[in-house]
Specification:
Shape: elongated
Number of strands: 12
Strand content: 15-25%
Distance between the termini: 33 Å
Number of domains: 2
Helix content: 25-40%
CATH superfamily of the largest domain: SPOUT methyltransferase, trefoil knot domain
Largest sheet: 8 strands, parallel
Order of helices and strands: EHHEEEEHEHEEHEEHEHEH
Length: 238
């Protein structure tokens, strides 16, 4: 069954214009056809098309059910966007397919990308949510200075992954060793030039736990994906 995204469906009973166009013009669905609609907040609706209009497709709700994230406690990643935007878009798509609650683009001292428009990223998250049959859209933040982020997530496990060889590697443990799958967690991943030592110090002073994601040097987007995959694996095995 075809699935669509309508965050305000319960009040408007209408698909957004882009979804309406895809439904009526592209898929050529007609009045009486049944579809699924998700609101991005965890609700799945089984619906019938009441008015097949290409700009505001009218919907009749037949039933609904709550579809909370299957992974339980929250998974959150703060990651410095790469200079090549395609790479960070790929990372966001794959994290959403696996399951993630929040993505925070991070502005660091060594960031190569200091401006980020999130409109396209939002569309990618929506498409990945629908494709992977989820009903919960990850929260996508605007580009956030690292100093602002360090003061957040006080109720969650907080980890910082870095690879600067001048920093004490023996003080870092594997994320798999310190992550508790039953609690919310956030992992902070630095830019391609890594975190500045002062940023690492500030994070550690704020209670972040230094971690490593293995012995390989990973690209920024690969590190973020590795962290999310590792947390999901530990949740499945707990």
């Amino acid at each position: 069954m075809h699935r669509f995204f309508a965050p305000d469906l319960a009040t408007t009973l209408t698909l957004p214009e882009e979804e309406s166009r895809h439904c009526v013009r592209v898929l050529r669905l007609v009045e009486g056809d049944e579809i699924e609609v998700i609101d991005g907040a965890g609700t799945l609706y089984r619906c019938r098309i009441a008015m097949a209009h290409a700009k505001h497709c009218g919907i009749e709700i037949l039933s609904q059910k709550d579809c909370p994230p299957h992974w339980g406690s929250k998974i959150m990643v703060a990651v410095a966007p790469t200079k090549n935007l395609d790479r960070i878009e790929w990372m966001a798509e794959k994290c959403t397919e696996m399951g993630i609650d929040r993505i925070t683009p991070l502005l660091c001292r060594h960031s190569e990308r200091k401006v980020l428009k999130t409109e396209r990223l939002h569309k990618i998250l929506v498409a990945a949510m629908k494709q992977s049959l989820k009903a919960q859209l990850p929260q996508l933040d605007e580009l956030t200075p690292i100093g602002d982020l360090i003061d957040e997530y006080s109720d969650a496990q907080r980890f910082i992954a870095y690879c600067d060889e001048s920093l004490p590697r023996n003080e870092r443990r594997s994320l798999a060793q310190v992550y508790d799958p039953s609690h919310d967690a956030m992992v902070m991943i630095g830019p391609e030039g890594d975190f500045d030592p002062t940023e690492v110090e500030a994070a550690l002073n704020a209670g972040f736990v230094p971690v490593t994601l293995g012995d390989s040097r990973l690209r920024t987007e690969t590190a973020a994906l590795m962290a999310v995959a590792m947390m999901h694996t530990l949740k499945m095995n707990k």
